[in-house]
Write a structure and sequence with these properties.
The protein contains 6 helices and 5 strands. By secondary structure, it is α/β, with parallel strands linked by helices. Strands 1-3-2-4-5 form a 5-stranded mixed β-sheet. The longest helix is centred in the first third of the chain and has 13 residues. The radius of gyration is 31 Å and the shape is elongated.
């Protein structure tokens, strides 16, 4: 019974205003001379101007100074420029591995990382790209990837996440926010 009443009330509410509605505008009513509605002229109960008479929205020029609001740049370095010890307790390395520089997964991953750069900069991330397995870099020796691989390390040098496919910045940021060191940084360690 309650369900029927609820449905009835919803239908009644959807029907629109009832007797409490204001009287109709005389300009919107059809002329008394013609009792048959003209097919070319439709009744406009919302009292909106016809589409042709509506003014186009005015596009205002951007008033903010965009030069002062540049997006933070995500630091991306090659595997041969840095060592893992350089980032201990200062940065969170994200290492992108592939067997060739032309790997489409690397292009997808780098595009995603660049689009979400501000989230990663807030989390002290640096991106290291290693697409040359023949060089046998220190990164490859320590992390031992195969094919495409995304490795997320924390500031203590520990491997926290490994993914064999491109990973969105949102997922990376969520994973980093669960790291114990990140929780201490944000003051959320005691909340758990």
């Amino acid at each position: 019974m309650k369900l029927k009443f609820l449905i009835f009330a919803m239908v009644l509410g959807a029907m629109g205003p009832g007797r409490d509605a204001p009287p109709p505008d005389p300009d919107a009513l059809p002329q008394a001379e013609s009792t048959a509605p003209d097919r070319g002229q439709q009744r406009n109960p919302a009292r909106l101007p016809p589409v042709a008479e509506r003014a186009a929205p005015e596009i205002l020029p951007e008033t903010r100074d965009m030069s002062s609001q540049t997006a933070p740049a995500l630091e991306v370095v090659g595997f041969d420029e840095v060592t893992p010890e350089q980032f201990l307790w200062t940065r969170r390395p994200i290492v992108v591995f592939a067997d060739t520089p032309g790997d489409p997964a690397v292009a997808d991953q780098m595009r995603m990382l660049n689009e979400g750069a501000s989230m990663l900069v807030q989390r002290d991330v640096i991106v290291i790209v290693d697409t040359d397995p023949r060089a046998n870099s220190i990164w490859r020796q320590q992390l031992r990837p195969s094919g495409f691989s995304l490795v997320v390390l924390d500031k203590d040098g520990q491997v926290k996440q490994r993914k064999p496919f491109p990973w969105s910045v949102r997922e990376i940021a969520r994973a980093i926010d669960r790291f114990p060191l990140r929780r201490q940084e944000t003051g959320r360690a005691a909340q758990r």
